[in-house]
């Protein structure tokens, strides 16, 4: 399942985008959980951390789509943004907010489905699938949205921007799976996504979400070296 937000002040166009997305989902056996917004203010107030992608009309009444995207990017670098627009003059501004694609109005069905297919393929590159212990449901989680993992009461808890999930797999398993994506161990009970680290001392790691994770003396040097290397690569 993919969580999607559509922000469009033209109600007919809003429903049309929803319809096209559902048709694509039915054809590809993909489920979209769609939230609809009629203004930039609505989507900002509603929050956007849970979404895999957001479809934004640029010419919104009130705050425009470009400014909405700038606000989104201040707290979420990962969510994919597709701009919907009738003109091409805004394209250069889209690069400043790392827009994934532009879709021109009037929207061509075939072109729309091609862009959504490309988008889903891109999202899936950074997706992992876990089965939770509590309800057995298969959960789809973006690797980039994982803040850290910890061992808690003999379970591995995965803390993400959208919530916390429990996993049947060991932390050793997650170490191997996530190591290539910029994760490191400050402690034998923790695995941290380095992109979320804002502070490091010999005693603790502080994340941009203000979560505090303790650092073991044995792990400090190695974690610090990995963090410095990570900073140098971005």
Automatic annotation (TrEMBL):
Gene3D superfamilies: 3.40.50.2300, LytTr DNA-binding domain (2.40.50.1020). Keywords: DNA-binding, Phosphoprotein. GO terms for molecular function: DNA binding; phosphorelay response regulator activity. The modification 4-aspartylphosphate is found at residue 57. PROSITE patterns: HTH_LYTTR (PS50930), RESPONSE_REGULATORY (PS50110). Residues 130-229 form the HTH LytTR-type domain. Pfam families: LytTR, Response_reg. The keyword Phosphoprotein applies. Residues 3-120 form the Response regulatory domain. InterPro entries: CheY-like_superfamily, LytR-like, LytTR_DNA-bd_dom, Sig_transdc_resp-reg_receiver. PANTHER family: STAGE 0 SPORULATION PROTEIN A HOMOLOG (PTHR37299:SF1), TRANSCRIPTIONAL REGULATOR-RELATED (PTHR37299). May play the central regulatory role in sporulation. It may be an element of the effector pathway responsible for the activation of sporulation genes in response to nutritional stress. Spo0A may act in concert with spo0H (a sigma factor) to control the expression of some genes that are critical to the sporulation process. This is Stage 0 sporulation protein A homolog.
